[in-house]
């Protein structure tokens, strides 16, 4: 299995271009199920998770072609409504096929995604939302089955904002009869990207990006060409790496409006940010100031950036309190950072007190999930000595060519067997 080896201590300098967003591409690709024709997606990142959803769609009968970051999906051949365990277990986001399958074919069977390292991650709100649209839901031997000859528009209230839940219900409601309103909907840029794509396909949606999304069902959708938005979490990861190494990096091809929470916190650490239309220059300060963080749904500070900021706070001046308020077990990286000499104590499961020290020491560490792996890369970049990170397949699920991008910025980083 591949590992990443980093000789720490280099300041990052140069320019890096951000790839398309994994979490925007996945629902877009699932939306091609709604269309009897060929959808075309550009700026799709080359990642394991993208390969997983492509494999899942092919298993359903769609024809896909991925070349030069462009994915075409022809949904006209779909002849199967069952997303099998062997495919779903590779990636929880496979649940995104549930809404579109039941909307177009009136019937879907999707293996129930289990929990993952960061939490139990139930899908109860996806299911109650589909029930509100008139689907009959049952559970059978680990599979969720949803049936409805015709979905009927309705009011759906989410107890808490759910990103893939909002996406699933939006994709279901666009082909429902009549109007639907999603309340307390997630407001992430990925939701807006999906809504814009569905609108291009002929759907009638308003309010995406706010907590209330209104949808007027249409009879059918038509194929469209959709560009995937830049990955705000990849941009944030490079911004933190630049500041943590006290470097000077121009992050190109990002949308600063999508990363307000990250920009705000990074400025508070003492980094200098120069924000342009589609780019951000980050210059790290000599002294990294400690900051407190609480993760929240968008536009609050993203849980997907918590681990990277924690790595940086290990060498800040002072104490930082990090409160993970979205997932119940998203501090696994803290134990690996401890092995590198960090001073972190965790209380009540989701509060971490990080007391800044002068320098981390390199150590062999293990990635437990996607963003934890990014945190360990940042830790390796600032540590003294050679860090080897194992289980980097987690990283390959969500960061396109990350070691190449870091080495182009002057990091001493390589992939080893
Ligand atoms: N939740 C429920 N019931 C549900 C759905 C969610 O209780 O039916 C809870 C979750 O357990 C969690 C909270 O609601 O406590 C929010 O979870 P959400 O549903 O928003 O998460 P998700 O849609 O499963 C997406 C991203 C995650 C990201 C979260 C939060 C995708 C494919 N995944 O997950 O991305 O952390 O939103 O922003 O969009 C990552 O990229 O590393 C990643 C984990």
Explained architecture:
This protein has about 425 residues and is of the alpha/beta class. It has helices spanning about 20-30, 50-60, 85-90, 100-105, 125-130, 165-175, 190-200, 230-245, 260-270, 305-315, 330-340, 370-380, 395, 400-410, and strands spanning about 5, 15, 40, 65, 70-75, 80-85, 105-110, 135-140, 145, 155, 180-185, 205, 210-215, 225, 250, 270-275, 280-285, 295, 320-325, 345, 350-355, 365, 385-390, 410-415. Strands 22-23-1-24 form a four-stranded mixed β-sheet. The protein has a four-stranded mixed β-sheet with strand order 2-15-17-16. Strands 4-5-3-14 form a four-stranded mixed β-sheet, with helices on one face. Strand 18, helix 10 (about 305-315) and strand 19 (about 320-325) form a beta-alpha-beta unit. Helix 4 runs parallel beside helix 6 (about 165-175) and helix 6 runs parallel beside helix 7. The radius of gyration is 21 Å and the shape is elongated. The model has no long low-confidence stretch (mean pLDDT about 95).
